[in-house]
Amino acid sequence: MLRNLGIDFRFMDPEIDESYPDELNLRMVPAFLSEKKANAVSALLKFDELLISADTIVLLEKRIYGKPLDEEDARQMLKDLSGKMHEVITGVTLKNQEKSLTFSEVTKVYFTDLSEEVIDFYIKKYQPLDKAGAYGIQDWFGYVGIEKIHGCWYNVMGLPTSRLVKELREFGYEISPV
Hints:
Layout: H1 29-41, E1 51-60, E2 63-65, H2 71-81, E3 85-95, E4 100-111, H3 116-126, H4 140-144, E5 146-150, H5 153-157, H6 161-171
Antiparallel strand pairs: 1-2, 1-3, 3-4, 4-5
Helix pairs in contact: 2-3
């Protein structure tokens, strides 16, 4: 997504403990974790570099669904989400050597009722073990499992791009239209 926005970048994968304080409001977890990731690698920033970190969760009925542990966990997640509305929340942190900004974006996602056959097919064919909530809106599941969304489609993929561009401009970075 960053490449499609015309942003040159290098990827850093901080090895962090993704725990958070028990008293933290669950809607604030992605922002907390994006800041934690940014802080873990900020010492590696060069003078003119901007760091963009993000973390995405799926929130259903006061329960966070992260990446599934295995296929059975993915199956249970999709069963839990079936026929219901959940929120996808992404926290994004922008940081350079002078300042930092963190924001969150929320998208409401409505699932259709999912049969066990659909769930099993999706897990076997698409292996969604690297995705919060065990699904990707951009793949086959988005065509058959999602009834509607309210909010940013790209947020469900893990990065609210239009909000990111707005916040980058306010942070002092202009995105080239080329």
